[in-house]
Amino acid sequence: MTAAIELRGVVKHYGETRALGGIDLTVDAGRIFGFLGPNGAGKTTAIRILLDLIRPDEGSAFVMGFNCQRESVQVRKRVGYLAGDLRLYEGMRGNEFLNYIDSFRPEKKDATYRDALCERLGLDPTKRIRALSKGNRQKLGVVQALMHRPEVLILDEPTSGLDPLVQDEVVRLLEEAVSEGRTVFFSSHVLPEVERISQSVAFIRQGELIAVEDVAALKSRNVHVLEVTFSAPPPPSLFALPGLKELHRDGSTVRVQAQDGVDAVIKACATQTVIDLRTEQPSLEDVFLAYYTGDGPTGAHDERREARRASA
Questions:
Q1: Boundary (domain end) residue, out of 218, 238, 260
Q2: Which residues pair with 224 in a beta bridge?
């Protein structure tokens, strides 16, 4: 079976900055595939290469077997694209913009389906784009990507700016697309979103692909995160044991990650006076950090977690 998306040894530099350092990635057809990583990791660069918006310095990219650089017209016939930095024609009304996009693929125009998408997302396409809120502009972008039922959907931060109810509807639309045999490839730095809807994920960091795995397999791994509060600051070496990683320490409170169950954590805690102990369901980020990055204790990881909590 032809892969929906394939990157072979893709390298991209912007001057002295390396955006992609030789990416190899294959996305099977008929899947929801999450492409995740922090801002600046290289996600958008990879997507722009797939659309031939920029050219790689080395390597090749393919969509449905077509070379993205040599056969870009064939690629674009098969792709629905939503840019992360969505820009629209301010003077047009929403329906005028959608008509304009439809004119590129007249053979795939389906007014009934287009209207249904607008209704499901709560979008009024008669308004001028300049008068639309950020959320409604994002809805318009989602509609233009979906409305011709492309074989492959390439979406950069698709739910950015949408309220939770609309986010849920977008997820349902993507799941429907996959149930029809189409492929969804979307990037995000919002890990819970990727975790919720993806079947497979790739994690990219500083232009390097760290891992590609099924979500179910990742979540089944025996990784636990515990936060323990002691009556007094514990010894620095308390959790310096095989299979344990101290993630953060704040006075008498320590967050620790355990790869092989919680027994070792409990036994270590038993040597001290414990005031409180809480466990957390590991996120995809926790699993990737535990199995692939090889990082030691990192305050940066904990700062990202706290930032996500503050914004929730």
A1: 218
A2: 258
Residue 17 pairs in a beta bridge with 14
Single residue among 182, 201, 218 that ends a domain in this structure = 218
> Tokens in use for 114?
């287009």
Helices (H), the chain: 43-50, 72-77, 94-102, 111-121, 134-146, 164-179, 191-197, 215-219, 263-269, 284-288, 299-311
How many H-runs (helices) and E-runs (strands) does the chain carry?
A: 11, 14
Q: Verify that 29 and 101 share a domain, yes or no.
A: yes
Contact (CB, 8 A) for 153 and 182: yes
Condensed to tens digits (0 to 9), the pLDDT of residues 54-73 reads 999 999 999 999 999 999 99
pLDDT digits (tens, 9 = 90+) for 169-225: 999 999 999 999 999 999 876 667 777 888 899 988 889 998 888 887 776 666 788
Is 185 in the same domain as 226? no
pLDDT tens for 264-289 read 899 999 999 999 999 876 666 666 66
CA 267 to CA 176: how far, in whole Å? 48
Under 8 Å between Cβ of 43 and 57: no
